[in-house]
Amino acid sequence: MSVTRRIAMTVNGERHEADVEVRTTLVDFLRGDLGLTGTHVGCEHGVCGACTVLWNGRAVRSCIMLAVQADGAELKTVEGLADGATLHPIQQAFLEKHGLQCGFCTPGFMMSIYELLTRDSAPSEEDITDTLGGHICRCTGYQSIVEAVHLAVEKMRAT
Amino acid sequence: MTGHDDIPKTLAGLPNSAPRYIGQPIERLEDPALLTGQTEFIDNVVLPRMLHCAILRSPHAHARIVSVDVSEAEKLPGVFAVITGEDAKRWSNPTMTVPPGWGTHCLATDKARFVGEPVAGGEARAGAVQHEIALVPRRGERRGRGPAIGADRTRGKLQPRKRIP
Q1: Interface contact B36-A87, CB threshold 8 A
Q2: B40 at A interface, C-beta within 8 A
Q3: Boundary (domain end) residue, out of A49, A80, A111
Q4: SS3 assignment, position A103
Q5: How many CB atoms lie within 10 A of CB A45?
Q6: What predicted TM-score, i.e. pTM, was given to this entire model?
C-alpha cells in the first residue's frame, strides 16, 4: 500500500536524505520529517499561500507538491532567510512596517516576495500586488505588507 | 504604584499624557520569532503516543445517514479507532445553546445538514494513514431524502437533486 522512495535535497544550504512515502506532500515532509515548522499549512489546496517555499529559486506551494518532486532540488524556507541573528531585509521591513499581526501567513508572503525581489530589484506596484495576490492574510491587511515590500526594496538596494 | 492612592478620583486628576505608550510605536516582542519561523503553533506540537484524526465530511447539503460502514477503515494498519455520530451520541452531550435544545453533536447523527458537516472521524498513529480512513466510510453512506440543491460534479453546476424514495 505504501510505496517509499529515497530522496535527497538541499534545504537552507543543508543536505538531507530520507525515505518518504511517495504520497507525502512537500510541506508534510518539511514540517514532519525535517522539523522545519516555520512553513505553515493553511488551506491544504494551494489557495492561501501560507506554505510557500522556494524550489530551485521559484516560489511554490509545498502543500500541493509531493516531497518526491523536490528530489535533487535546492529548497529555501523561512528558516533560511535570516543570516544568524540578523534579519533578512524583507523580515526587517515586515517588522518595521507592521507587515504582520498573528504571523501565520507571513512566512509564505516573505518567500514569494523573496522570489520577486531576486528576479526584479525594482518591481512595479502591479508586480507587487500581483505577487501578494497569491497570498491570503486575514488580520494585518495588505496595505502595510505592500509598504513592507517597498521598504525591503530600498533596504536591499542599500546593501 | 503605591496602591489605591494613585488612582485618579476626579476628571481633573486623569492624566492627559502617557509618554510611555501614547504616540510611540510599540515594539512587538513576538515579531522576530514569527518572522524567522520559530514561533510554536498548535500544529507543531508532538506528544508521545499522539494520534492524528481525520474527519469525513458530508458531501451533501441535506442527507439522511442510513449507515456508515467503518469496518474497512478499522482494518487499516495504524488505525486506533473510527468513530461516528452514534458514538458521539453515546459518549457526549449536544453542544449547549440558548435557547436550549438546538445543539448538535460533534459528528452528524442521523442526518447531515450542510456540506462539510463532520460525519465520521478516524484516529490513526501516522498522519499519512488518515487519507485512507477518510475515504473508506463514504462507501456506506447513503444519500438521503429531500436535499434542496446539491453540487452536480458531472455537470459542474448547481441543480436540484432528485428525491430518492
Answers
A1: yes
A2: yes
A3: A80
A4: coil
A5: 9
A6: 0.76
